[in-house]
Amino acid sequence: MGDAVNGGQSPDCDPKSSRDEHSFGPSDSEDFDFDADRLREECGVFGIFGHPEAAAITALGLHALQHRGQEAAGIVAYDGHRYNSERRLGLVSEHFSKASTIERLPGESAIGHVRYSTMGETILRNVQPLFAELNSGGFAVAHNGNLTNGLTLRRDLVRDGAIYQSTSDTEVILHLVARSRRQRLIDRFIEALRAIEGAYALVALSNKKLIGARDPLGIRPLVLGELDGRYILASETCALDIIGARFVRDIENGEIVVISEEGIESLRPFPPRPMRPCIFEYIYFARPDSIVHGLPVYNVRKAMGAELAREAPIDADVVVPVPDSGVPAAIGYAQFSGVPFELGIIRNHYIGRTFIQPTQSVRELGVRLKHSANRAVVAGKRIVLIDDSIVRGTTSVKIVQMMRDAGAREVHFRISSPPITHPDYYGIDTPERDKLLAATYTLEEMRAYIGCDSLAFLSVDGIYRAMGEKARDPLRPQFTDHCFTGDYPTKLTDVGGETKSQLSLLAEAS
Amino acid sequence: MGDAVNGGQSPDCDPKSSRDEHSFGPSDSEDFDFDADRLREECGVFGIFGHPEAAAITALGLHALQHRGQEAAGIVAYDGHRYNSERRLGLVSEHFSKASTIERLPGESAIGHVRYSTMGETILRNVQPLFAELNSGGFAVAHNGNLTNGLTLRRDLVRDGAIYQSTSDTEVILHLVARSRRQRLIDRFIEALRAIEGAYALVALSNKKLIGARDPLGIRPLVLGELDGRYILASETCALDIIGARFVRDIENGEIVVISEEGIESLRPFPPRPMRPCIFEYIYFARPDSIVHGLPVYNVRKAMGAELAREAPIDADVVVPVPDSGVPAAIGYAQFSGVPFELGIIRNHYIGRTFIQPTQSVRELGVRLKHSANRAVVAGKRIVLIDDSIVRGTTSVKIVQMMRDAGAREVHFRISSPPITHPDYYGIDTPERDKLLAATYTLEEMRAYIGCDSLAFLSVDGIYRAMGEKARDPLRPQFTDHCFTGDYPTKLTDVGGETKSQLSLLAEAS
Amino acid sequence: MGDAVNGGQSPDCDPKSSRDEHSFGPSDSEDFDFDADRLREECGVFGIFGHPEAAAITALGLHALQHRGQEAAGIVAYDGHRYNSERRLGLVSEHFSKASTIERLPGESAIGHVRYSTMGETILRNVQPLFAELNSGGFAVAHNGNLTNGLTLRRDLVRDGAIYQSTSDTEVILHLVARSRRQRLIDRFIEALRAIEGAYALVALSNKKLIGARDPLGIRPLVLGELDGRYILASETCALDIIGARFVRDIENGEIVVISEEGIESLRPFPPRPMRPCIFEYIYFARPDSIVHGLPVYNVRKAMGAELAREAPIDADVVVPVPDSGVPAAIGYAQFSGVPFELGIIRNHYIGRTFIQPTQSVRELGVRLKHSANRAVVAGKRIVLIDDSIVRGTTSVKIVQMMRDAGAREVHFRISSPPITHPDYYGIDTPERDKLLAATYTLEEMRAYIGCDSLAFLSVDGIYRAMGEKARDPLRPQFTDHCFTGDYPTKLTDVGGETKSQLSLLAEAS
Amino acid sequence: MGDAVNGGQSPDCDPKSSRDEHSFGPSDSEDFDFDADRLREECGVFGIFGHPEAAAITALGLHALQHRGQEAAGIVAYDGHRYNSERRLGLVSEHFSKASTIERLPGESAIGHVRYSTMGETILRNVQPLFAELNSGGFAVAHNGNLTNGLTLRRDLVRDGAIYQSTSDTEVILHLVARSRRQRLIDRFIEALRAIEGAYALVALSNKKLIGARDPLGIRPLVLGELDGRYILASETCALDIIGARFVRDIENGEIVVISEEGIESLRPFPPRPMRPCIFEYIYFARPDSIVHGLPVYNVRKAMGAELAREAPIDADVVVPVPDSGVPAAIGYAQFSGVPFELGIIRNHYIGRTFIQPTQSVRELGVRLKHSANRAVVAGKRIVLIDDSIVRGTTSVKIVQMMRDAGAREVHFRISSPPITHPDYYGIDTPERDKLLAATYTLEEMRAYIGCDSLAFLSVDGIYRAMGEKARDPLRPQFTDHCFTGDYPTKLTDVGGETKSQLSLLAEAS
Predict the structure, then answer these.
(1) Interface ipTM
(2) Same-domain check for residues C233 and C92
(3) Per the record, which residues fall in region Disordered (chains A, B, C, D) (predicted)?
């Protein structure tokens, strides 16, 4: 099953994601999953040093980060003599909950990784952490983000005789480290980081050290925690909470931390630049109980809902969230507006990822496997429907229709973030630009396409206000927000060439 | 794996559920699942007659009824020549979503069943529907409920040479039908029903008919639906909604409906009695979007919360639901009281049923795999915590502690149903009486045990008010409410004897 | 997987084995398995009483009896309180080699069963031993043989309200025991045996006893062994040898042995009749190292080969056995004739049962997955090819062709048993009469069909001589040999009716 | 299961095979597998070019080569655009028989590989063929043999920045090819071959070519075949026979063949040397129906038996082969000596590789799961027991004991090859020298240890005679026979260093 690997692809073949092929109109073959039109991020990372239960702790941390990636998970642990690795397709709780799996991962230091969920097949050899036996000993790396010059670097390295086993951009980093002529491992690692561009939060493990690194702008998040005197690195604070670890601080943009038996050391090999974290962590990716750069995510989302209520009020009977990601904004909207919050859509928790509608005629029933309308709340009502974002708009059409089928008198759709007009190249799986609804349609065209009575998005300044800023600073924007503004914060070396894809997402295509 | 069966037990052995063995104090080995202290019901049933996709429709209906039983699922379909059966441990979506499974179930009539989830092992041969080849042809039955004279009848039948293959009380019904000397199958079925006592909602399938039956008091629910002119039977209306079927009416207490190519016929072989449905469908079992006997469950639960706010108000900062079952009552409480509703506990959706905490020292971290406190909402606040019921109280202790750990200043615990003081014998898996917290402790003892600042339950009359009654009619109670009142509506033949168990729950013990 | 069960069949449907449908001509879809045209027997049985490792011993005994049935295996063990059962599709070594499986079978007494292998699907609920909870306690039965009035009895019992869970004729015996009005279990068992006709070797287990029984003619084999003072019952002596147990004696025809803590008791409830065991145990079924009724099977087979050399000599260069069952007869033929014995056909031991030839064009290559010709031995030679029997003749055609393709100058085919002209009804899976090559064709027609240069079978008297008799006694034949002679030793009650099948083989058809 | 991978090992850890740890005395925990003391070879290879069913043909070829490796199998196919790969632990027939697997391997050229069987765990990432995406396109390699400077080369390459994903020496070849600065792929491949020492038969696949290569001495075998005008490469002729392909010729020692759409080209980049193939192909590895360098293996083995009868005659009653590998030599011995050949040991064909004896007390029964003595042949007889080789001698002890337990009067043990006194470094998994029985013990000590009445080995000249030579030419030995003579035909670069192992066998140890 999962152990089949594609042997690679010939260089002349054109990788193309099968996920991006449908156009705006709702197609027959689409599923009715409300999450089908969300953005997806690639990963969460976790690492711990010096704990006798390193792998078990890492499994728990990854479980808390599961919302960042449901496709696959992996852990590499080092027991002082040997690196052991377990990498699996599926949820953390499916594989890493077993004592037998954890027992195969002895040692006091470990790093782990979760990957995001796709419709299609996946490839085990791309599951991280990746590992290489270097001249200096073993070296494992796990990565959240995407290199914007990954394809270019890969091509150069292959030309020079490097053999790739995965299509992951993380392997680019491994090869750069392996080929560095510097003596010390940390210098080789820094040399590798100097060669790469883009967004990354990295955790790495060597015979003596746990290393964390964040890109010069701090696009992807990484925090430092502490449990009984042992240091932890994790994508979000919720991964510290699950094990009762203490939050120490965010890793800074451009910072490298080196954790060893001697303690923790901070390196800053890059010229200082202002922090510019990804705004989508607040809108969608981070768990509501995480605290990102000092701001509780739940509170920020409620504030987005309240700003939305201020900017786009409407006379209505109930506020209905699109579950589950729309709930905090809906509570914020309801509290600001005074319109009562109600569960107008019920989520079925017992759905696996794989309920295939068995026959054509059953499919035509318009079956809703994951969600159902709560008619008692919706029928005859004017509803304000709250969601966090619109990507292609395909599921928005269905949610609005579901509300109307349940008897809603009016459906006012409110989105607690601005229109997405530009694709991402930093590890978020966005469709190409012409598939983004807001990139092509006017607001009124969008409303008509979705079929709601009114439609409003939160403004860019509104979302900055929800995060405690007065407004977006156009000269030095406080966040990475190119999906709304087109203002990309780094060079996009690979995009210039013939391939438009992010290397970190190619796995699915090859 | 699932195909191992225990061969049965000797009559002298003492079946005892391993689930009921811990006492009040929170034990080390307990898991941190908030749902661990819920009541559990045995089943949901579904049947359809005359539809070319009978098995696929049944799979979807069972998926919508999955909350009534997560342990196992089964479907029997009849293709005019042969009965085919698929019975599996696990969720409907794990097995019955596959085209290959559905293809093994050809035919235009089918019935299905879901069973509830337990911690322990389960037995495939008890998974329903059960089937027998009678003299008159095949006969399949699926059952929700429990016979209060099932053990007694079973003993008599074994003495007379009957061979049981399961420990299910449903098989008692099969044997009674098989041994009836009446001519027509429906007469044999009625003769069997006359012999049994207790609670049941049954669907049965013969070569020519789909049959539904509800016990004389209508304790367990059963509804009639219609899709493109074909009749459907289901435990709840949400199973009609998922396939776009129309709700026709509730099956009445004591009614038998016979669906065939000639249409639908209604039989009433019992003396008329007033309806007395189980009150727990409204409190916990039914899905919030179902409508039970004309009352939308979501609205009833909100009304319970509002009644609770009226009966037990408190000066507080936030209303926090215990997810997910406490949410509607918490919304009701918040709306009535004006105290804001907030998600103070975050649920991790990616947990399977099997995350085992791998080592002792990790277990001692007090890891919360399924839920985490949302500190931003809880810290420094006086919170009203809303749950739907307390059984043993073991998880209540942990939830309150989790709130305090997250910095709650005060925790006021409010329960949207009355104290549970008596066990059930009609298919709900309650612990024995001395394990029920409210059966042994006073209100103040309960508060002290749970560790909250104040504790209040909804009154019995309060819950009747939430369901639209003025109060409980002590002479002719409108609902089956013995868990709160000790007023059992039927004879309890088996309970008199040496075995205190419900036959329908013995499967897990044997 | 294995836990899917067919729910049964409607009474009006006509069960028919899909195995018997092709006619004489070699068809495209046939596989190239030399064993495809062998007779198959249903089962082997094993039981042990009073041994602390009862289930483990039984697993080993069944492994030694695996040649009697490769489709499925089961063990029931009794631990003084409870009967535990494990029944699995597949080989004994696949499932019952695991410590975890054996640990689920605690207790000091156990019985087990292996079933034969078929092409088609199989049904777990038919896997033996079968078990019933009787009024007097648990009762498990395993059966080798076939009841010639099983269908008739089954029909009567169903009419009387019995519910069948399998299609096995063993369940008929269980129901007869369950319904007997006698007091003692052993009397109920004897009453059941008095009602049945046909061939059977039974082992049964109750709370206090291990019981063995053999039909009045002793058609199917059963031996008594002893290990460290504990009694064992098994189909063949090789099941004693594997565990180092001592052979005590054959169970006699019509004998019932009752093994308990008091020791062993022998009952003979039937009028005495002369023994008449099945001749096919010697020809094909029994393992060559077993000793059946005092005769070593290997020696008998060599003697058949020698008799064949005497009856049908030929001038040739090499004697080539069809592996593996033709080897002993070929050695006997070679030693008697002086023609050298050579391995002209090589068997590939690494074949599973499931190598499906993936595509049409590959299939047309005439691939031989299981056997290959050893050209160095065959090319240019006159070969005597030795096999033990011909059923349909379909694989004989291929074997001869394989020899010719490898360059054989002449192929003289010699069969070490007489022509099979009549079907069996005692548990051997023979095709219907018109599919038996020798029932329809003359010797010369057979030779022409098979394509060999000469063809000869051993005579009926020849086979009796190989077994130490002077000749067949036509008045009181010493063996059950109806397949060669048409002389059926019992009534064939079921055959008179509309169904020609053996109940014990119906499993595959329903 | 199989998809777990060990991440590698730190350079300071000492790899040691757990297989080699027991000393001469038969230990309790040893299994009773007669094959446990055989030599094992690493692999078989297969390749085909230009056939529309390339992968299916390759699967069949690998099935025929299954005796060369039962641990794992893999196929890489190229469809003109993409290389697809399936690599699995287990038998070819378990995975590659499925149409679904073959369908994932489209294309007209394919290579495949089988690996040998071990007791312990194995590592999927070592399963061949290995693949690399080179600058020039994809490149896949499968290898039978072992590089005697593999570890040394690997160390050099890692020092230079190469990242290894497996511990296979085949990956050394891949890296050498990847790093070559030559232009044409075939020149890069030749440059790689010039760097390596040892034994190899290689098949490789590029976008345009199928390549075969044999080491300068031709130690490991490789043959060229042809099917409908398409060329095939395979380890043995039996892989041609299974698909009806024609044997063209052996690939010569030091020859490289390049098969493309233009036809076949032969390159000889090494200085010419006399052929010196491995003698063990004749003794044990090759299938009896294969023809190796013009000699039918079956005939050679019979001739070894005949030579043995000439060199070491004995007065006896029966010749008994140790199945299955001793059978041809036993036939040869019997024919030469006139002592009758008999099956004194019966093999149970239904054993999987995993029958674990479940409990200590059962283990002490001395259970024989795979073989049983045929008492009827052995009891009271003087037997000549024929085996093909003795490695550690551990199973010889048991076989002789089994014969004595079955009543053998005398046991004369005859081995159809000379004493093994030296380990192999060319891909045969021999124990270290001090574990080889004949390296430490005299003939009489061996006889006493094994417990037979007499013991004799075939002489070195005797085995050369069986292969048609007059005697061994001490100046230019005709075969690679160092295991008997200590005369290693190549440099042993790796052996000089701290590690004594063969890199190709390290997989199991890491």
Answers:
(1) 0.88
(2) yes
(3) 1-31
